[in-house]
Structures are given as C-alpha cells and as structure tokens.
C-alpha cells in the first residue's frame, strides 16, 4: 500500500511563498552548506585518522572542531600572490565559477515535505522545476568551466594539463551519470525532485533500480573528482593539477569549497533520487515519521551516511590511471547504462503496477547476478591471457639470460653450494 501523506508537496506548491520566506530558506540553505563544509572537512580528517589509528585534528578547539575555522582564517589572511604571466581576470573568475554553480545545484534538493516555517506552510526546498534534475546536471557542467579557466589562465603546463584532464573526465562521467537517471525518470514519470521522492513511497529506487544506483555511485566519484578518480589534481604527476599556480590564499580556499560543495551535491542527489529522499526507512511507514520536521532528520542521516561512504572509499582505494578512468567511463558504464535503459523501458508496463512491483525487484536482482557472472567470466579470460603472456615473457627472458650471444648474461642456478667462492656451512647454535 502506498503511503501518500497530505503534506507531500507537488510542483503546484512552489512559487507561492512570500518573498521573506524565500529569503529565509535561501539563508538556511547557505548556512547549512557553509557549516557543512567546516564540519565536513573536520569530520573527514577525523574519520580517516580513526581508520588509520591516528587522532586527527585535536589542537584547535575541543576535539579539534575549530581546525577548519583556523585553516580558513589562515588562507584568508595570507598574502595574495599573482604570477606574472597569468590572465588576472580569468584567474580570479575561475574559483568563483566553481563555487556558485555548486550552491545553485543544491537548491533543488528537498529536505522535507510541507513544514510550518514561521506560521507559513511551505515545502522545505528552495525551488523545484519540471526539469529539476536537468538543472542539476547543467550546473555540474558549468562548474567545469572554472577548472578549465583556472588551468588555462595560469599559463602553466601543469595547470593546463590538469584542466584538460578535468574537462575530459567530467564530460565522460556526466554522460554516464545522466544515463543512470533515465531509469529513474521512466519509473517516476517526472524530472521533478519532489515528485521523485514522492514516487519512492513504496520502494527506494536504490533497490528497484540497482544497476542505475551502482553506476551513479561510480559516476559520483568521477563527477566530484574524488579518490579514486581525482585525476584533475593528481599530485604525483601534475604537481597539484589545475590549482598549481593558486597559492594558499582565499582563491585556493574557494577552490576547495567548490570541490566540497560538489561532493555534498552528489550526496544529496543520491539521497533524493535513489534513497527515498526525506522519507523514513522502509519499515517505518507510520505517519509521525513523515510529518512535521522529522523528515529533516531522516534526510540528514542518509546524507551523512553517504558522505561517510565517500570518505571510506578515499581512505581505502588508490588513485587509478587515467587510461583506466576513461576506459571505465566509455567502455563499461555507458554501454551497460544503455542496455539497462532498453530493458527498463521494455518492462516498465509490467512493473509500473503495484501488484507487480516485486517482479521488477526480482528482475533487477537477476540482471545484476547475470552481469556479475558475465564480468567474472571476462575477468577469468583476461586473467588467463595475462598469465599466458607472463609465461611467454618469462620464457623469453630466461632464453636471453642463458645466451650471451643474444645480449644476455649467463645466470647461475640458485642451488649452487658456493656463492662468490664462499662455501656455505652450518653454523653451530650459540656461536657468535
């Protein structure tokens, strides 16, 4: 049975708020994101430290809570240096372009249904649109211009290479990310975020559309340039990437803020489109769990758990190579997405009915199991090919090593009783 509450907002509920309510909601959203950045940096450093058996920040304030504030003040008060060859206008504009779209992208995320805000019944969401998810994708595409301009305006080969890498990476993974949303649109019948949350009253799309959710999780790291897909920076080979020429000043702080905001936006979209949004966990279908300000708690719990998962991946996985990144995006994620969309569109008329909802879940499980079986089969074949190639290389190396005429050096067998003319003898126990 679908749980539809009277407080569930629709598109008709937006655009009716007084101006002062809209301003209050915008200020609340801004405060949430700014405080989220401060505590998010501290929380990420603490969580990774605990994973690595360290304390993490513990000097500035109680439990190190003021460490992010101290870092922000330090970067804001540092001398603002300009390399002589930079394009100053674009050099200053690039960090701003990275930050503003990230703020705008979060404006479509619903925190709760209709709530009483200073005596006015209003949805706890800044704005909703018939194409709200496309607006989020557009903001993500605009923000990459900041990265490209930061690399180009710096007039540095390292920064330029980092900007080009970022452009290629974001384009590749935005395609796969957009395709992962198509199955959600087919089932929900809308691109409005509030309507998509309403459509997940019975089953979260993370369960019903498992392949789409898993693909989005991978694309989330690529879009936000987080480890293991932080190739735009790539300290090992790019000396910091597109931000090489940005000193530790306020501009550098804006770049870091933009990257964290993209991580928050990716987490918020994952909660909204796949994890039921502000709805309580599935077994809790009581009315009190979806009324008043309680949905804010459920959204915040899901949001924090998603962010913890991102941090956990950063602490666990190494950075991949750039060719592996692009190969995964173009050769795996996009073809799998297209095949999954065709299958979802073909069976939608069956699973759209409530009585046959479990058929869709079972179908998704079967598809995932089949995909894993195919992947394991290909992985086994590739492993055998690698082993055969390694055996060929070893045999060729051994042949060259034993033939001085072929340019190699004779290698003595390892079981000789003498080594460099010294006889190996047993040393009696207790002898120094």
From TrEMBL:
How does the record describe its quaternary structure? NDH-1 is composed of 14 different subunits. Subunits NuoA, H, J, K, L, M, N constitute the membrane sector of the complex.
Name listed for the protein in its UniProt record: NADH-quinone oxidoreductase subunit H
Task: Kindly give the InterPro entries that the UniProt entry links to this protein.
Answer: NADH_UbQ_OxRdtase_su1/FPO (IPR001694), NADH_UbQ_OxRdtase_su1_CS (IPR018086)
Origin species, per record, is Nonomuraea coxensis DSM 45129
The membrane topology term of the UniProt record is: Multi-pass membrane protein
Which family does the entry's similarity section mention?
Belongs to the complex I subunit 1 family.
> Which catalytic reaction applies to this protein?
a quinone + NADH + 5 H(+)(in) = a quinol + NAD(+) + 4 H(+)(out)
Keyword terms of this UniProt record: Cell membrane, Membrane, NAD, Oxidoreductase, Quinone, Translocase, Transmembrane, Transmembrane helix, Ubiquinone
The UniProt entry, under Pfam families, shows:
NADHdh (PF00146)
């Amino acid at each position: 049975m679908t749980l539809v509450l009277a407080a569930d907002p629709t598109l008709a509920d937006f655009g009716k708020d007084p101006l002062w309510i809209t301003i209050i909601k915008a200020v609340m959203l801004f405060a949430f994101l700014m405080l989220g950045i401060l505590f998010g940096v501290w929380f990420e450093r603490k969580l990774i430290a605990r994973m690595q058996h360290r304390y993490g920040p513990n000097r500035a304030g109680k439990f190190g809570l003021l460490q992010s504030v101290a870092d922000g003040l330090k970067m804001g008060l540092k001398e603002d240096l300009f390399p002589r060859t930079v394009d100053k206008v674009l050099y200053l504009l690039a960090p701003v372009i990275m930050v503003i779209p990230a703020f705008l992208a979060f404006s479509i995320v619903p925190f709760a249904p209709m709530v009483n805000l200073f005596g006015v019944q209003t949805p706890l969401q800044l704005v909703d649109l018939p194409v709200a998810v496309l607006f989020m994708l557009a903001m993500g595409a605009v923000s990459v211009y900041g990265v490209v301009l930061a690399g180009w305006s710096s007039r540095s080969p390292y920064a330029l290479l980092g900007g080009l890498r970022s452009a290629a990476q974001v384009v590749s993974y935005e395609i796969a990310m957009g395709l992962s949303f198509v199955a959600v649109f087919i089932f929900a019948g809308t691109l409005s975020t509030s309507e998509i949350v309403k459509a997940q009253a019975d089953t979260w799309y993370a369960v019903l559309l498992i392949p789409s959710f898993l693909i989005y999780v991978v694309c989330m790291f690529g879009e936000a340039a987080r480890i293991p897909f932080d190739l735009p920076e790539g300290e090992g080979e790019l000396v910091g990437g597109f931000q090489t020429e940005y000193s530790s000043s306020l501009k550098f702080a804006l770049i870091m803020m933009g990257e964290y905001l993209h991580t928050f936006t990716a987490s918020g979209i994952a909660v909204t489109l796949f994890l039921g949004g502000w709805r309580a966990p599935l077994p809790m279908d009581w009315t009190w769990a979806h009324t008043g300000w309680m949905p804010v708690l459920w959204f915040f719990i899901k949001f924090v758990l998603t962010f913890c998962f991102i941090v956990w991946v950063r602490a666990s996985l190494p950075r991949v190579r750039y060719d592996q990144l692009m190969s995964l995006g173009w050769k795996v994620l996009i073809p799998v997405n297209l095949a999954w969309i065709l299958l979802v569109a073909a069976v939608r008329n069956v699973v759209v009915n409530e009585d046959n909802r479990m058929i869709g879940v079972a179908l998704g499980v079967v598809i995932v199991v089949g995909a894993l079986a195919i992947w394991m089969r290909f992985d086994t074949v590739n492993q055998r090919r690698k082993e055969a190639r390694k055996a060929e290389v070893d045999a060729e190396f051994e042949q060259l090593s034993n033939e001085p005429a072929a340019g190699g050096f004779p290698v003595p067998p390892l079981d000789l009783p003498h080594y460099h003319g010294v006889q190996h003898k047993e040393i009696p126990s207790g002898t120094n």
